[in-house]
Amino acid sequence: MKNIKYQASTFDNIDGLSKEDNSHLYDLSIEAKNYLLRHQWCKSILSGWLAVCWEEILGVFLFEIEPAGSGVDQFVWIVVGDIPRAYIDVESGRDPRSALESYVTIMRDWVEAVLNGEPIEDCYPVEVPATKEYAEILQNRLDLLDTLIIEEL
To answer: Hey, where are the domains in the chain?
Structure first.
């Protein structure tokens, strides 16, 4: 699809967008920053870049952070949009495609656990109720990520 963009845009440029110019991208960028900053291991954001955006549905951002302690990566991917938010470390995602592939993998683990009635404590924390309905919705969105977005990167 032509809507996928790989950009080397700095996050400062994204912050400079007016809501009138591109409110959805602006909103995704704010969501990504806020999600990252709420984690205790992130002391502050040093810089960030938009890696992928797809229509008004998905944003993948790469951030350089000031870690709050040792053993925390200096770079982290944040995936936001019309899907559960998540962070992906740079070892699991060396580029936007592998970051999204890692995202799909960890979310499919949660979906499978929920659909099979298994515990979700060992899964990546997904911020929706662990019900069959939510698992099926997420499974459909992950299928779309696989077929419409990841294959195009």
So the answer is: 5-152
**What's the confidence (pLDDT) of residue 17?**
45
- The token duo for 128 is 């929706």
Q: Three-class SS of residue 128?
A: coil
Give CA torsion, residues 81, 28, 146, 129, to 10 deg.
-20
**pTM, 2 dp:** 0.84
The pair of structure tokens assigned to 12 is 């400062």
Buried b or exposed e, range 43-72, using 16+ CB within 10 angstroms: eebeebbbbbbbeebbbbbbbebeeeeeeb
Strand partners, 58: 54, 81
**Which of 114, 37, 43, 35 has its CA nearest to residue 79?**
35
Query: 132-144 vs 96-115: helix axis angle to the nearest 10?
Result: 150
CB contact at 8 A, 32 and 80: yes
Mean pLDDT of the chain, nearest integer: 84
- 73 versus 151: the higher-pLDDT residue is 73
- H helix intervals, the chain: 11-15, 19-37, 96-115, 132-144
